[in-house]
Amino acid sequence: MKRTLFRTRIKFCGFTRPGDVRLACELGADAIGFVFAHGSSRRIAPAEARAMRQALSPMVDSVALFSDNPAEEVREVVRQIRPSLLQFHGSEDDAFCRAFGVPYLKAIAMGSPIANEHPAALQQQYPSAAGFLFDSHGAGGSGGSGKVFDWSRIPAGVQKPFVLAGGLTADNVFDAIIATMPWAVDVSSGIESAPGLKDGDRMRRFVEQVRRADCHVLD
Ligand SMILES: O=C(O)c1ccccc1NCC(=O)[C@H](O)[C@H](O)COP(=O)(O)O
């Protein structure tokens, strides 16, 4: 398929330091993710996220990530951070995800049975989702694993924009984009020197490879 003049959006996820947020914006990130999932080494408190939200450049989106957090916690994050988008990694249903009045992405655990469902079933299950995010973890597992899944398992014909995640790095993101043609790519581990600590050189190389893929004319 020919896809020229397309700009793959880039989401960098799992920030814990405002300086990293500033650098990510300068390097060309379209969205910055903050993790509120329990048990994550990248989990931050709403007050910390507020400081990082202030470090965001104009026209860069903020994304708040959850995994079966209680509704009260999601509400508190929405109140304090005003994220542009929510991202749910757990077993949340559509009614839960849409209840906060903020557009949301539903993460699909590609290691779980839901991943084998027909795209129409996914869409029926999450009619209000702004899009899907395909990630490598299994049901009950968490994101940010740094592991790649088999991209050929992405259900064909999903009618909503989708984000490709899971183990992306500057070394594989070009191939990942050519193989799957996602709306956006999402990376956490692949741009870090340690969990939550982003690395400027890895972020820059990642952006370069995404842009290289965008310039690649496909027949
Ligand atoms: O990052 C976490 O620790 C995390 C915990 C629970 C739910 C989601 C989490 N992160 C999601 C992401 O950072 C990304 O959306 C995605 O999983 C990509 O991560 P990675 O494979 O490390 O690039």
TrEMBL record:
Name the CDD domains for this protein: PRAI (cd00405)
Write out the catalysed reaction. Answer: N-(5-phospho-beta-D-ribosyl)anthranilate = 1-(2-carboxyphenylamino)-1-deoxy-D-ribulose 5-phosphate
| Record GO terms (molecular function) | phosphoribosylanthranilate isomerase activity
Respond yes or no to whether keyword Phosphoprotein is given for this record: no
> Does this UniProt record's set of keywords contain Amino-acid biosynthesis?
yes
Q: Which keywords label this protein? A: Amino-acid biosynthesis, Aromatic amino acid biosynthesis, Isomerase, Tryptophan biosynthesis
Q: Name one GO biological process term.
A: L-tryptophan biosynthetic process
- Which InterPro entries does this one have? Aldolase_TIM, PRAI_dom, RibuloseP-bd_barrel, TrpF_fam
Its recorded name reads N-(5'-phosphoribosyl)anthranilate isomerase
Give the organism's phylogenetic lineage: Bacteria, Pseudomonadati, Pseudomonadota, Gammaproteobacteria, Lysobacterales
